[in-house]
Amino acid sequence: MLTRKQNLIETITGGTPDRFVNQFEFMEIIMESPLDTRTNPGELNKNKWGITFSWPVGQLGKFPLHDAEHKVLKDISDWRQYVHAPEIEKSDAAWAAAVAHANRIDRNDQYVAGIILPGIFEMVHNLMGMEQAMMAFCEKPDEMHELIDYIADYELKYAETLVDKIHPDCIFHHDDWGSQKSSFISPAMFKNFFVTPYKRIYDFYKANGVELIVHHSDSYAANLVPHMIDMGIDIWQGVMTTNNTPALIEKYGGQISFMGNIDTGIVDLPDYTPEIALRETEKACRDCGKQYFIPCLTRGMSESSFPGAYEAVSQAIEQMSAEMF
Amino acid sequence: MDKIVEIQKMIEESNPEPIAQAISDALVDGIAAKDILDAMISSMGVIGDQFSEGEIFIPEMLMAAKAMSVGVNVLKPHLVSNGSSGLGTCIIGTVEGDLHDIGKSLVAMMIESAGFTIVDLGVDVPTSKWLDAIKEHKDVKLIACSALLTTTMPALQETINAIKNSGMNGFGIIVGGASLTQQYAEKIGADGFAEDAGGAAAKALELARLS
Description:
The structure holds two protein chains of two kinds.
Chain A: H1 4-12, E1 27-29, E2 44-46, E3 52-54, E4 63-64, H2 79-82, H3 92-103, E5 111-116, H4 120-128, H5 130-139, H6 141-166, E6 170-174, H7 187-206, E7 212-216, H8 225-231, E8 235-239, H9 245-252, E9 257-262, H10 264-267, H11 274-288, E10 293-297, H12 309-324
Parallel strand pairs in A: 1-5, 5-6, 6-7, 7-8, 8-9, 9-10
Antiparallel strand pairs in A: 2-3, 3-4
Helix pairs in contact in A: 4-5, 4-6, 6-7, 7-8, 11-12
Chain B: H1 2-12, H2 19-28, H3 33-52, H4 58-75, E1 89-94, H5 102-113, E2 117-120, H6 127-136, E3 140-146, H7 153-165, E4 172-176, H8 182-187, E5 192-193, H9 197-210
Parallel strand pairs in B: 1-2, 1-3, 3-4, 4-5
């Protein structure tokens, strides 16, 4: 039986895996890394960039506030006046828990994964609001390039520390690039603004011991896949069924792999049942096949919003492995 | 007529910068403000369709809406109905507990571009605020409720129930949001459902004609 890491490699290289890779099993995410302030359910707080997040009780996630009082970047023309990257925490004390976690992982069996969130696109609209960001891409492209480079430079500085402290084998990078049906911006605009900064970041990681780049965007983004490949992404996690994942595997398998195709909005519900989890998982496994595909809930973490849904999908994947391998 | 085509092109190419001058020139040439406005509304319909088809994306749609807004401001003093094409008022917001505003804001822009006067209640709007807004504003023809999350779908149902049970009428209720379907919209008593901002504007026009 292959290790979890070997099985992942066989899957994404078009080899002969001996079972489906089961969701996030191949990576251990080091959540203790001191990247930024967390917002927990029921909290309203400000992160190190000054962005205020609210997580209302009973809701599925946090939301940045962009009213006049809370918006950080009020005018893109003067972005340097408003946007100030935080200091990067480098002390051994701050990283102790992360280092201890990383040291506990058997790297022959699993990838030690550093996590980055939010990504550059999300950071831009967290700072200034989505509508203002979208219009600034058209009206103030030079300033947007400057802001994006500034955020990318910060990410690269953080990357140096992350590599130094936990020596990640994998980077799990979040940045949602679309809605369920469409990318937020056109492929041409995406290329113009985001490909080069992301290449800088992912090239750095690959040059410093990272073997695997896993990028999360639980959305439609099929039109961006060529750019994902260009950036150096190995696995797109969060691919929704709206992308026609089997067609993407057919077209791009061997250049990039796809992780998801079990939509959170269908399975991860308050009244979820193992039957629904199995139905959706079986469809994903049979439609997408054994190579270049990892069945997984589209949520960007090894958990579900409603207790038991993630585990139900894991059990369903085991069942499909037993049937199909 | 070439000037109207030129103005339409500015909207359909998401180019707000020259539109004010182009409209002023058209008015000087004697083209009726109402004809210019109708042509612009038609172009926003084209934009809505292109967005629904995935031919354009959010930035282009927003820039087209900005062109529309700039143009309407130039036309306003020349229009008998003061800038609206008489379709009435649309009250829009996300239901209580839902803080996502991008989809709602896009829908508001497209419905405004279609000729409605927009009252945007913002996000996380409690039921009482919806009812107050309907009472406060004249000529309400449309209520647009957004709920992105599965967890806020019950709040959508409660909002619609409260509006329907209030005894106020003369308007249609349209719903939208990532988690919703036509079937769910019908189940909770909404009069209309749209999958995206372009579809919302078309459905808004349809409901306004019925109400």
